[in-house]
Description:
It contains seven helices and no strands. The chain has helices spanning 2-9, 15-27, 29-46, 53-63, 75-102, 135-141, 152-155. The mean pLDDT is 75.
Amino acid sequence: xxxxxxxxxxxxxxxxxxxxxxxxxxxxxxxxxxxxxxxxxxxxxxxxxxxxxxxxxxxxxxxxxxxxxxxxxxxxxxxxxxxxxxxxxxxxxxxxxxxxxxxxxxxxxxxxxxxxxxxxxxxxxxxxxxxxxxxxxxxxxxxxxxxxxxxxxxxxxxxxxxxxxxxxxx
Length: 170
């Protein structure tokens, strides 16, 4: 419809189409607003409202208030924010590492002690006892009952694979 209206304003529309467009222009408010807008555009292009339209616009812009932009940050302020960001990152990594490793370190359990003669000061030595042949199978079978570490939620989904070797191949 706008194309037909533009063609009518340019004088390129036939009389038959003009007679159908005029009643529509009377009924349709949006079409009348388009008609007014097209006439304003044509007047501005032809210079009807003054020869120096650009100069008038520039003069009105000069009178308007100036909007000031915020100041840029100084280098010292940027450096301070960078240092704080770096410190926060290091603290976050240290915290996550501390949480993850706190459950994995277990205290050594004293298995046996050798007592010194009563005259001397007692010296405690840790003694390691070798595990028997079936210890690996026992530990594998009872893995779900072992103490959990920091990966409590994931440990039950981890599958442990054991390889049984004969003593002759060792």
